[in-house]
Each structure stands twice: as C-alpha cells, then as structure tokens.
Amino acid sequence: MPNLVPPKIPDGERLDFDDIHRKRMEKDLNELQALIEAHFESRKKEEEELMSLKDRIEKRRAERAEQQRIRSEREKERQARMAEERARKEEEEARKKAEEEARKKKALSNMLHFGGYMQKSEKKGGKKQTEREKKKKILSERRKPLNIDHLNEDKLRDKAKELWQSIRDLEAEKFDLQEKFKRQKYEINVLRNRVSDHQKVSKAARGKTMVGGRWK
Q1: What is the C-alpha to C-alpha distance for residues 212 and 119, in angstroms, rounded to an integer?
Q2: Does residue 170 carry a pLDDT above 80?
Q3: Distance CA 149, CA 192 (A)
C-alpha cells in the first residue's frame, strides 16, 4: 500500500475552510446560473422559431384561403356567364321558332284565303271565255285539299313547310311568267312599230305617180 503524504501547508498560514466552501458555492452558483441562462436562451430561441413557424403556417393558410376565394368567385362568374349565355341562346331560339311559326301560319292563311278567293271568282265569272277555263283547270289541279284536322303538331309543321315551299315555287313561276310576258309584250310592240312603218311607206309609195322614170 503506497504511503499517503498529506498536503503540505505553508508555514505561518491558516487554512480557511469557510472561505473555500464559500468560493466553491459561488462557483457552483455561477455555473448553475450560466446553465439556467443558457437554458432560457435556448428556450427563447425555440419559442421564437415556433412563433415564426406558426406565423408562416397562418400566412400560408390565409394565402390558400384567399386563392380558394378567388377561384370560387371566378367559378361563380363563369357559371353565371354560362347561364346567361344559355338563357340568351334559348331566348333567341324561342324567338326564331315563334317567327317561323308565325310565317308558317301566315303562309297557310294566305293559301286558304287565296283558295277561297279563287272559288268566289270562279263562281262570279262563270264560263265567259276559254282562257279562264284553262286557268280554272290548272288551279283545280294544283289546289289540293288540306286534310289537316287529323294531323298532330309535327305533321302540321311538315304540312306548313310543304305549303311554304309550294308558295315559293309558285312565286318563282309567277316571276318567270311575268318576265316572259314583258319580253313578249316588247317583241309585239317592236313588230307593231315595224308594221306601222311599213304601212306608212306603202301608202306614200301608192300616192306617187311615175313621170319620166321618176316618182312624183
């Protein structure tokens, strides 16, 4: 077992255990205070980082909410525009349909009125001339009974389209006949003028006498 040598105390000095204990306590206290301060400083930084993270989260959440609100408003505006466009198209289609129905009804009414007028004219005119008989025959062949009492709405529309097309065909034929009549009238007038001029020349020639080989 090694020999233990007690610490050497300088001569003339006293060892103050109270002072040593006090200094040790002060040192421990300072170390503890430093640890406490370091802990609170670290805790403060953690809290600051946590608050910064919460702020970023709230900011991001607010940005997402704003983006969602903008998207929702844009979608509502788009839906409103689409609904407005659909309503406008439906209104336009309804207006065109009503106009088409009105035209068909008017055409049908005109056809019926024209047929009644022709029947009255035929009764009043009687059989005065052959040309009228020909017209009556042609009209009677073209005029067919409507027979629309048993037709449904779709069939009535088809019938109205058919009558409308017939009217258009008749109008085209009428125009062609009018142009033909104008052309024939012009040719007749030209021929009449030629005949009149020829007759004038013939009368002048008959009124003159031949004297010495000349007309006087």
Answers
A1: 72
A2: yes
A3: 55
Give, to the nearest 10 degrees, the angle between helix 17-125 and helix 153-206. 50
pTM of the model: 0.30
Asked whether the beta carbons of 139 and 118 are under 8 A apart, the reply is yes
In three-state secondary structure terms, 6 is coil
CB of 216 closer than 8 Å to CB of 209: yes
Distances (CA, A) of 197 to 68, 192, 211, 213, 216: 97, 8, 26, 25, 21
Instruction: For residues 126 and 128, give the distance between their C-alpha atoms in angstroms, rounded to a whole number.
Output: 6
- 61 CA to centre of own chain: 39
Sign of torsion over alpha carbons 113, 118, 121, 126: negative
Q: Two tokens at 11?
A: 């001569």
Strand partners, 210: 215
Q: In the structure encoding, which two tokens stand for residue 210, read together?
A: 């031949």
Structure tokens that stand for 74 in this block:
């844009």
206 SS3 class: helix
Q: Which residues is 215 bridged to in the sheet? A: 210
Of the chain, the percentage scoring pLDDT greater than 90 comes to 18
Exposure letters 154-166 (e unless 16+ CB within 10 A, then b): eeeeebbeebbee
State yes or no: pLDDT of 191 exceeds 80. yes
**Residue 1's pLDDT is what?**
46
Task: Please name which of 78, 99, 77, 80 lies closest in space to residue 88, comparing C-alpha atoms.
Answer: 80
Task: Give CB contacts under 8 A, 24+ apart, made by 70-75.
Answer: none
